[in-house]
């Protein structure tokens, strides 16, 4: 950790109570020029011989969530506050999709013969599960 005191200890606290999720990252060390580091050109990473993929991904995440980040330095500590907005609409959409999938499965089992359900499972559902869940 370049801007820590060398101990490499990062304190993380996350909390939420019926609203946005707040995450605080804190480490002892000298002040970090947060704005200048975020404005760094990302294409410089790709051309570098000592390319660090983790650093490039970190910079992309910082740039994409820049408006939700706050930085402060006080009492020898660097503190980054990240606020993640919570939208109840996404919960309702997820629950609605889950209920629709269960109903669709029950209807498909009742209407189609067993061979069709087996074919759909082997040719559609199993490859999707393997691709997104098990990563094979």
Features:
single chain; 136 residues; alpha+beta; 4-stranded antiparallel sheet; 5 helices; 4 strands; 20% strand; elongated; disordered N terminus
Describe the protein in words.
With 136 residues, the protein is of the alpha+beta class. The chain has 5 helices and 4 strands; from the N terminus they run ββαααββαα. A 4-stranded antiparallel β-sheet has the order 1-2-4-3, with no helix packed on it. The longest helix is centred in the C-terminal third of the chain and has 24 residues. The N terminus is likely disordered.
How are the elements arranged and paired?
Layout: E1 11-15, E2 21-28, H1 34-38, H2 43-47, H3 53-64, E3 69-74, E4 77-84, H4 88-111, H5 114-134
Antiparallel strand pairs: 1-2, 2-4, 3-4
Q: Biggest sheet, strands in spatial order? A: 1-2-4-3
Structural class: alpha+beta
Total helix count? 5
| Mean of residue pLDDT values | 77
Distance between the termini: 34 Å
**Run of helices and strands:** EEHHHEEHH
What sort of overall outline do the alpha carbons produce when their principal axes are compared? elongated
Q: Biggest sheet, in brief?
A: 4 strands, antiparallel
Strand content: 15-25%
Strand count: 4
| Contiguous uncertain segments of 5+ residues | 1-5
Taking all Cα atoms into account, the compactness measure Rg is 23 Å
Q: Fraction of residues in helices?
A: 40-55%
């Amino acid at each position: 950790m370049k801007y820590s005191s060398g101990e490499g200890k990062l304190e993380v606290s996350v909390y939420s109570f019926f609203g946005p999720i707040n995450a605080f990252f804190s480490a002892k060390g000298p002040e970090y020029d947060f704005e200048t580091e975020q404005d760094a050109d990302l294409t410089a990473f790709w051309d570098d011989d000592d390319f660090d993929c983790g650093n490039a991904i970190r910079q992309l995440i910082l740039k994409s969530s820049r408006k939700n980040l706050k930085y402060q330095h006080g009492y020898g500590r660097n503190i980054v506050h990240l606020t993640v907005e919570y939208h109840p609409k996404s919960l309702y959409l997820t629950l609605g999709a889950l209920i629709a999938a269960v109903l669709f499965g029950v209807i498909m089992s009742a209407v189609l013969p067993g061979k069709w359900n087996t074919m759909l499972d082997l040719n559609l559902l199993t490859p999707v599960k393997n691709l997104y869940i098990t990563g094979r």
